[in-house]
UniProtKB/TrEMBL annotation:
It comes from Sinomonas cyclohexanicum (Corynebacterium cyclohexanicum). It comes from the Bacteria. InterPro entries: Aldlse_KDPG_KHG (IPR000887), Aldolase_TIM (IPR013785), KDPG/KHG_AS_2 (IPR031338). The keyword Lyase applies. PANTHER family: 2-DEHYDRO-3-DEOXY-6-PHOSPHOGALACTONATE ALDOLASE-RELATED, 2-KETO-3-DEOXY-6-PHOSPHOGLUCONATE ALDOLASE. This is 2-dehydro-3-deoxy-phosphogluconate aldolase. Pathway: Carbohydrate acid metabolism. Coiled coil: none annotated.
Length: 217
């Protein structure tokens, strides 16, 4: 697994357009889902700390991450959370809000996708060193809201997360997002013992949509 810095993470998001968000029911199921996602062309995978045994899942998958792909940890809120996921092998962290984890992780050299919704939160996340702002929940505002946020903050990269499916991917990119984070619409029940074949099919569909966006540039 390659060393990850902020420019590398942002370039990976810009190229792949999709961050998979895993919320599993066990370390084993979460790790297996991550492996499938990577194998089907999803380059960015986040395992949320709401998954039982997240550290074990990260540690199991980290040595297997393909070159050019990246494994992160989500729902990171505290300093202790940061320490735990870094030790387990995560190369970036994702927060649900502007928490104490943002300046702490950035101080360690760990890229952060910081959750925010309002203009004030987005600016504060950026001021604290976030690599990008995770607009969350994106579905509460939609692509139009994201576009409005990018206008006063052209220097802030945004990632749309929360209620974002395959059909919304091009809409958010057109509105100015680097990409989207997809949980249910992409992972579904694949990290809870669901069909591996169906998970692989959804992953291929998202990866193909991202390729179409690259081809259209």
């Amino acid at each position: 697994m390659s060393t990850l810095d902020t420019p590398t993470l942002l370039e990976a998001i810009r190229e792949s357009r999709v961050l998979a968000v895993i919320r599993g029911d066990s370390a084993e199921h979460a790790a297996n889902a991550a492996r499938i996602l990577f194998s089907e062309g999803i380059r960015l995978v986040e395992i949320a700390l709401t998954t039982p045994g997240t550290a074990d899942a990260l540690a199991a998958v980290a040595p297997e991450v393909p070159e050019g792909s990246h494994l992160g940890a989500g729902t990171v809120c505290t300093l202790e959370d940061v320490d735990a996921v870094v030790a387990a092998g995560a190369t970036f962290v994702v927060t649900p809000a502007v928490t104490e984890a943002v300046p702490y992780a950035t101080g360690l050299g760990m890229p952060v996708l910081a959750g925010a919704f309002t203009p004030t939160e987005a600016y504060e996340a950026w001021r604290q060193g976030a690599a990008a702002v995770k607009l969350f929940p994106a579905s509460a505002g939609g692509p139009g809201y994201l576009k409005a946020l990018t206008e006063p903050f052209p220097q802030i990269p945004f990632l749309a997360v929360g209620g974002v499916g395959l059909t919304q991917l091009p809409e958010y990119v057109a509105a100015g997002a680097l990409g989207v984070g997809a949980g249910g619409p992409l992972v579904g029940d694949g990290a809870r013992g669901g069909s591996a074949d169906e998970l692989a099919e959804r992953a291929r569909a998202f990866a193909a949509a991202a390729r179409d966006l690259r081809a259209a540039r």
